[in-house]
Amino acid sequence: MNINDEKIQVQNLLSKDFGEFRESLAEDYCNYAHYLEEEGRCEEAKEYYEKGIHLYERLSENTRSNELKMKVADNYYRYGNLFYVLEENTCAFDCLKKTERLLCDLLNSEKLVNVRRQLSRTMLSMTILLIGENDISKAEEYMIKAFELHKDIADETNSPEDKEELALCAMNDVANFYRMKEDYDNTKKYLMISLGIFKDLDKLDGMDKDNLILVYVNLGRVLQKLNSADDARECYKSAIEIADVIEGEIDEDTQEYLDDIRNEMNNI
Predict the structure, then answer these.
(1) Is 135 exposed, middle or buried (0-12, 13-18, 19+ CB in 10 A)?
(2) Which of 116, 85, 81 is CA-nearest to residue 95?
(3) CA atoms within 13 Å, Cβ hemisphere of 150
(4) SS3 call for 261
(5) Domains in the chain, CATH or no CATH each
(6) DSSP letter string over 15-77?
């Protein structure tokens, strides 16, 4: 080996070592930022996310493993949500858009469940920001994409956890979105999807019944909007019957819903 070959070998080793050091430092910065965020020290957290992500970005894209790309995407997602908390919505959307791009690039090489799961959550976060900007059409596009990703994952894994997440997405995200638009037919459609999943999950031991109660209550209210009083009453009765069986195990928010519908049933 001549002197030039030795120099190249040393430079490659130094470059590799420095790259590993930079990656480790970036991870430490981002982990500390996450700690600060959980402590409510959001401005300080923003500073450390910026440092960490800057180091991540300086790592050559050509040398990034898929595992590292996922770390970068995850920290952009956290950074975006921090901006949302700080009401810096333009910066929040930019970070989430970068998260989306990184995850979509990953999906081109590997159809991993964890990548699709994170992409779905990212799109739901983007939906909230788009609604805030009154870009309802784009928000709906991202909302449905997120739901379809959730559905694909639940169909593939068939796990109770993924099915529950799909049902919650249908009830809390998609149905609420259409209720906001006063599109009660689509609201009913997604609540029925959620109800079907929660009823299946209810057959499993140890499943929380609060969500089943809530979907019956929400469906009853939508059916009232659609002038289906008898069907609405049946939904309310189902919610109350489940609650009576598990009396004492219901959380406060669900109990408030139940108190409201007991009063409403007299007026239907």
Answers:
(1) middle
(2) 81
(3) 28
(4) helix
(5) 162-268 (1.25.40.10)
(6) HHHHHHHHHHHHHHHHHHHHHHHHTT-HHHHHHHHHHHHHHHHHS-GGG--HHHHHHHHHHHH
Residue type, 167: A
Compute CA distances 194 → 28, 85, 126, 170, 211, whole Å: 40, 29, 22, 6, 9
pLDDT by residue for the chain (268 residues), tens digit each? 444 444 334 344 334 445 677 888 899 999 999 999 999 999 999 999 999 999 888 875 655 688 888 899 999 999 999 999 999 999 999 999 999 999 998 888 766 888 999 999 999 999 999 999 999 999 999 999 999 999 999 999 999 999 999 999 999 999 999 999 999 999 999 999 999 999 999 887 667 788 898 999 999 999 999 999 999 999 999 988 888 777 656 667 777 767 777 777 666 6
| CA distances (Å), origin 181, targets 185, 204, 257 | 11, 35, 22
